[in-house]
Amino acid sequence: MAAEDNLPSNQTPGAALPTALRLLASVFAREPDQPLLDQLIARRDELTDALGSDPLNDLASDNADDTIEALAVEYCRLFIGPKGHLAPVESIVLGEGQLWGPSTETVVGFYAQCGIASCPDERTFPDHISMELDFIAMLEETDRHAKAQQFAHLHLLRWLPGLMRHVQANASLAFYPAWLQGLLAMLADEYPQAAE
User: Fold this and answer.
1) What is the CATH number of the domain that holds 16?
2) Which domain holds residue 78?
3) Number of domains in the chain
4) Sign of dihedral through CA atoms 26, 32, 38, 41?
5) Residue 138 to residues 20, 45, 131: CA-CA distances in angstroms?
6) Model confidence over 9-49: pLDDT tens digits?
7) Which residues contact 45 (CB under 8 A, 6 or more apart)?
């Protein structure tokens, strides 16, 4: 489940829930790079429609290197540190005080219950936002909507509002708040019982 490697090039984010989830996973997997920026620019109109706002709006630079640099700085400042950051990891956002906390173990157990023994990308924690989104996409692709809804209820919709509050309070660009707002709306629409 390496989110950044799962970007279908022939579908738009609105064409299918798994495609949208994988694109969103790639946005939060790591600092943006040129291939991701190219995908986002190519799908700008569809993304704006799907999210209700243009996450690239305040990145008006004609220089792709400047745009990538601005997004990388923002990603690091919001999610990596050195201070004032909040890692987009369930155990951290829930305030468990450690990476690989009790909620991580619950996530790993849920993965195992669905036939995933371990995370193949050892650089990413199992309860990182990109891994959880990629997991839900995989469940949807294999017609396990009820399991996806259960996972969203037990995990993502439990901690994403806390991440959203952090990002809204600390972002200097509209990019990450727009993505998170769109993601939360998408999950609430797709999994209404989970959003209650």
Assistant:
1) 1.10.3480.10
2) 3-195
3) 1
4) positive
5) 12, 25, 10
6) 444 333 368 888 888 899 999 999 999 988 888 878 877 77
7) none
